[in-house]
Amino acid sequence: MKEFLKYISLAILVVSCSEDNYNADDNQNDEQQSSFLGEIDWMTSFGGSGEDTAQKIIQTSDGGYAVLGFTNSIDGDVTDKNLAVNDYWLLRLNADGTLLWNKTYGGSKDDRGQSLVETTDGGFALVGYAMSDDGDGSNNEGFHDNWILKLDALGNIEWEKSFGFSGHDHSYDVVQTADGGFFFAGFLDVTQSGGEGNFGKGEYLTRHGVGEFWGTKLDADGNLQWRRYFGGTNNDRAYSVVAADDGGFLMAGASESDDFDISDAKGSYDFWVVKVDKNGSMLWEKSFGGTGIDISRDITKTLDGGYILTGSTFSTDVDISKNNGEADIWLVKIDDNGNMVWEKTLGGTDFDAAESISPTQDGGFVIAGNSKSIDSDAEENQGENDMWLIKVNSDGTLVWQKTFGGSGLDYGFDAIENQDGSLVLVGEMASTDASGLQNGGSSDAVIIKIK
Q1: Which has the closest alpha carbon to 439: 415, 412, 413, 410?
Q2: Could you give the C-alpha distances from 117 to 65, 97, 124, 159, 405, in angstroms and in order?
Q3: How does pLDDT run across 311-370, given as a tens digit for each residue?
Q4: Entry pTM
Q5: Taken in order 111, 115, 120, 124, is the CA torsion positive or negative?
């Protein structure tokens, strides 16, 4: 656990990557490629005098944006709370980055929003982890629980549900399923659950240890249909999920284990991917990495039916063909059976890492993350950590990159492509001297559009 926590403190210096495939024979892709100038269109920040962060962004059906994070501010843009503790924080913006409304959700304890989807009825589903059993939260089983909220289009709560046991149970990513329900992924503190957590298949099937990948399936009203955990005797944590075309799900994250469900561990921590079918039964699992610490933070689909994983690597061996120094962004392409197709590293001689990856219309990807490097793939650094936005093609080759920040600690967490080929990056900035932005507190949520 100490080693894991040490890594997490380093991994907060990371960056996010995405991939971009350009076909010179396709006129539409020619237009798409030429329309992207790599210039700042607008940038804005939101928050108060406390700590504010943006963790996830989606483009909404009206062409605007929804951004989820968390805040402990009670002033500035945050006007609906009076306790200086973390709450889920949802911001709605129009296409020009103008704030339409923002709302917080939580209680009197530590509640942190991590991911969201726009639902088929025009509302939103938010996931993260929460300690509160008051305010907007109706229940808590101890420390953090998985907490999901279903909202209408204006951010009003339609229902909320908490799932967990007496330990630290976190959810990090969510998808809406074909039946209108939801599947979210994170990790279960199985030591504290006493082996519980496999509802729908029989509890106490295995008693692994410390932490497990944990996937939970709900119906459209938030009722629990099934949940499963997977892992070994050490720390195993899922940070992202993607729905497979066959109705199953892929959960990606990191594993420290080399036993039970993990069949081919490479080193200290590996990228670990688990595929389950629509009922939660494991179809396959694969580990990728070297003898160092390798943490997968996100997964997305590719146009050819495969998947791209991204995160960071400290390794220099086994599956990693190149390391530029300290930590690099690592991209791993796998096919639908989990076999590695290729892998690439991006970074410089300092700490670089990815937090998210999203597909672009030309078959490539956009990556969001952080960089401390000033060499190799990272050409500029303003001081400490900078937000790092990257475009790559379908082969993982770097197409474009840019850093944003000042002399403080600035982190990029998510990025998406708009229909017109422009990019939007979200994260947090603690710098008071970042060009074009005014800092209102310890850290502000930042949104940057690149045209």
Answers
A1: 410
A2: 11, 19, 6, 15, 28
A3: 999 999 999 999 999 999 999 999 999 999 999 999 999 999 999 999 999 999 999 999
A4: 0.91
A5: positive
